[in-house]
Design goal:
By secondary structure, the chain is an alpha+beta fold. Helices cover 31% and strands 19% of the residues. Strand 1 (35-37) and strand 2 (45-49) form a beta hairpin.
């Protein structure tokens, strides 16, 4: 059965550094996936490559230092129309674990400035 996943992490870093980490190509590539492309503006679509299908997220709200809201435009990794379909407890646990890794990497990058991406992949060619 599908269930919401709620994770939180405290970050001891300037709010502007967290905004940059969540809204810029350099920031996202430093903690999530090295194949990240993003522009820090409302309506832009951030793209994330993982060596396969590309995840796309639209920036809906951008209040630097306070709030960033995204809408996922891709049913990744689930096939279109299958989320939030019933998933096994193991799949739910794996999803929660992966997001926990991403949030931990975000905290580490924001607090130290040292890139530590969870996923390292070759970038998509420009224009693809």
């Amino acid at each position: 059965m599908a269930a919401p996943i709620a994770l939180a992490v405290s970050v001891n870093a300037p709010a502007e550094r967290i905004t940059d980490a969540l809204a810029t190509t350099e920031g996202l590539a430093s903690f999530w996936t090295t194949d990240s492309r993003a522009e820090p503006r409302i309506g832009s679509v951030a793209r994330f490559g993982f060596g396969g299908p590309e995840l796309q997220m639209r920036i809906d709200q951008l209040d630097p230092g306070r709030r960033i809201a995204w809408t996922c435009l891709t049913d990744f990794p689930m096939p279109p129309g299958h989320w939030p379909a019933p998933i096994t407890q193991a799949e739910l646990a794996a999803t929660a674990y992966t997001w926990a890794l991403v949030l931990t990497a975000l905290r580490g990058y924001a607090e130290t400035g040292t890139p530590q991406p969870v996923f390292t992949t070759a970038p998509h060619p420009v224009g693809s």
